[in-house]
Amino acid sequence: MRHIAPALAALAMLSAPAGAQDRFADRVIEVREVAPGVAVMFGQGGNIGVSHGEDGVVLIDDQFAGLTDKILAAVDDLGHGPVRFVLNTHYHGDHTGGNENLGKAGAIIMAHHNVRARLAEALEEGEGTGGLPVLTFASGVNLHWNGEEIHIFHVHHAHTDGDSIVGFRNANVVHMGDTFFNKVTWPYIDLTAGGSIDGLIATAKRVLDHSDAETVIIPGHGPLADRADLAAYHDMLVALRDRVQQGVDNGETLDELQARNLTAGYEVGEGFITGPKFIEAVYKSLTGSTDYKPR
């Protein structure tokens, strides 16, 4: 867990201090209703899922501290405040940066055990700003809220070692956190925090097995998706994993694999993670190395 600070710094994931909040001054929080009582917010950082209704509001992730006021204004526009619960899908700061603000405002922060452990270690090392989850779980928990059964379950060693998937059973909506990057960048496998390519594939397969053509899928980053989008993502991960594994079996080096441009032909933006860096993550995941930085 000593690699937490570099990973956070690399992603600019730490919550912004008061003096740095001007970077969010022009940021607009876009709200889109995806089913009755379920919405998504797009801002800067991980996509936020929202359950809203007579019981109050549940947020799935909360982006950066400097955006909290704008997020709460968007919640007010939905007309069902206050925020009662915040679920962190994993520990990265673009999904947890608003924890301290929302916790002080009365929200209960919840997450997998490993999320609290990693955030707590970052605090000890002076890299975090607070807002630890106060309710944690090992395998999952159900939240009966706003007439909905919200099923929260842990997936092992996918994007990190603390990822949660959130399913709204009645609404047929799933929030996948950063186990699913939809088209805007190559996936980030946080090897230093227990992530793995096989876990990422297994997570996509698990969601596919429990979804249908009408399921709305909220990715951690990128536009809303459906089952076909997730199936294409899963198949891409499998194909690239298998190509890298074949190269490893044949004795190819990482440089040789990257030179073969294995990611060519896929409709994925060269965003935060480039194609070569994704191949590096897959290679190191398959060979047991955790010496990986996304940039």
From TrEMBL:
Position of the signal peptide: 1-20
Domain Metallo-beta-lactamase: from-to ranges: 45-221
Compartment(s) where it occurs, according to its Swiss-Prot or TrEMBL record: Periplasm
Chief subcellular location: periplasm
SMART domains (UniProt xref): Lactamase_B
Keyword Glycosyltransferase: no
Transmembrane stretches, start-end: none
Keyword flag Signal: yes
InterPro entries documented for this protein: Beta-lactamase_class-B_CS, Metallo-B-lactamas, NDM-1-like, RibonucZ/Hydroxyglut_hydro
Cofactor(s) for this UniProt protein: Zn(2+)
GO MF entry, a single one: beta-lactamase activity
Entry keyword set: Antibiotic resistance, Hydrolase, Metal-binding, Periplasm, Signal, Zinc
GO CC annotation terms, alphabetical: periplasmic space
Catalyzed chemical reaction(s): a beta-lactam + H2O = a substituted beta-amino acid
One record GO biological process: antibiotic catabolic process
Family the entry assigns: Belongs to the metallo-beta-lactamase superfamily. Class-B beta-lactamase family.
Protein name, entry field: beta-lactamase
Organism: Sphingomicrobium lutaoense
